[in-house]
Specification:
One of its GO terms (molecular function) is oxidoreductase activity. InterPro entries: Aldolase_TIM (IPR013785), FMN-dep_DH (IPR000262), FMN_HAD (IPR037396). Its cofactor is FMN. Pfam families: FMN_dh (PF01070). This is FMN hydroxy acid dehydrogenase domain-containing protein. The protein is an alpha+beta fold. The protein has one domain. Helix content is 26%, strand content 14%. A two-stranded parallel sheet has the order 1-2. Helix 1 links the parallel strand 1 and strand 2. It is extended and about 40 Å long. It starts with 6 loop residues before the first strand and ends in a 19-residue tail after the last helix.
Length: 70
């Protein structure tokens, strides 16, 4: 909803500093709620992606990590 609260779903990373940086970033962007996902330590085996040899196109980036490793 346009006037509703914005919430962010965070997957906790092994690098807790990275998770903390993401939290600070979304807080600065005005998010009011943080939903922690802690039950998936790794991504699933996506058989269709394997069979179709899916690869993320090189021009696409994971936006949440932009500028984190400088």
């Amino acid at each position: 909803a346009p006037g509703g609260y914005r919430w962010f779903q965070l997957y906790l990373y092994r690098d807790r500093k990275l998770s903390e940086q993401i939290v600070h970033r979304v807080e600065a962007l005005g998010y009011k709620a943080l939903v922690l996902t802690v039950d998936v330590p790794y991504t699933g085996k996506r058989r269709n992606d394997i069979r179709n040899q899916f690869k993320l196109p090189p021009h696409l980036k994971v936006k949440n990590f932009e500028g984190m490793f400088q």
